[in-house]
Structure formats: structure tokens, C-alpha cells
Amino acid sequence: MNKEECMEALSKHADIKPVITSTVWKELEKENKDFFDAYAQRRDERESRQRIHKMRLDSDTNSK
Predict the structure, then answer these.
(1) Chain CA centroid to CA 12, Å
(2) pLDDT, tens only, 13-58
(3) DSSP alpha helix (H) spans, 1-64
(4) CB atoms < 10 A from the CB of 23, how many?
């Protein structure tokens, strides 16, 4: 779950204002830099794999 998804979920399900979630998220990022750096890297890698997978599927579909 990214920051925006977290803000939306907490607003919807716990009635926590997005500005509060954003502020806490920023502090967590400052205090846990290594964790968030690794999280961002894994997220980017996952998104790259998903794009490659989609391109393969599109290529297979177009070649038929």
C-alpha cells in the first residue's frame, strides 16, 4: 500500500484526515529511511515486472 492508498483507506475506514496520515507517513519515512528505500525499490521492481508481463501478453495477443 502506498502513501495515497493508505491515506484513502484510513480516511474511509477510520475517519482519519489525510493530512494526519501524510504527516505521520513523512515522519515514518524520516525515522525509517532504510525501510522506505527498500520498499520503494521493491515497488519499482514489481511495477517493472508487471509492465514487462503486460508487454508480453500484448505481444502474444497481437501476434495471433
Answers:
(1) 18
(2) 999 999 999 999 999 999 999 999 999 999 999 999 999 999 999 8
(3) 3-14, 18-31, 33-62
(4) 11
Chain centroid to CA 62: 30
Q: Measured between alpha carbons, how far is 60 from 24 in angstroms, rounded to an integer?
A: 44
Q: Which of 27, 48, 23 is nearest to 36 (CA)?
A: 27
Rounded to whole angstroms, the Cα distance separating 54 from 44 reads 15
| Angstrom distances, CA of residue 32 to CA of 9, 14, 16, 23, 38 | 22, 24, 22, 14, 10
Closest CA to 25 of 49, 44, 1, 46: 1
Backbone torsions φ then ψ of 16, nearest 5 degrees:
-100, 125
Question: Biggest alpha carbon distance in the chain?
Answer: 52
